[in-house]
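Subject: Sanity check before I submit

Could someone independently write out the structure tokens for this chain? I want to compare against mine line by line before I put it in a report. The sequence has 95 residues.
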Amino acid sequence: MKVRHELKVIPCFFEHIWDGSKPFEIRRCIDRTFQRGDKVVLKEYDSNKHVIRDWCYTGRYVTADISFVTQYLQQDNSVVFGLQNLKNHDENSTK
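---
Independent answer below. Compare away.
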């Protein structure tokens, strides 16, 4: 069964996903299982923007499919997964 994962990403990493130079993500997998074919929504999250936690999302996010998953040479309970079919979204855009 395909799963949709919504994940926070801090700006220094999000920018590289947004511009396409980082087509992968490294994540802890204690509370979830990432599998090839799953969908991810990577939301830019900047905790320096506001003191109210839910207001820290910038409105930018990337949707993608997980193309590959491995635990090879990762720390315990961590995986690397590849991203494909990346699409950028900006809730603040006037388009």
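---
OP: Matches mine. For the report I'm noting this point. The domain at 4-90 is CATH 2.30.130.30 (Archaeosine Trna-guanine Transglycosylase; Chain: A, domain 4).
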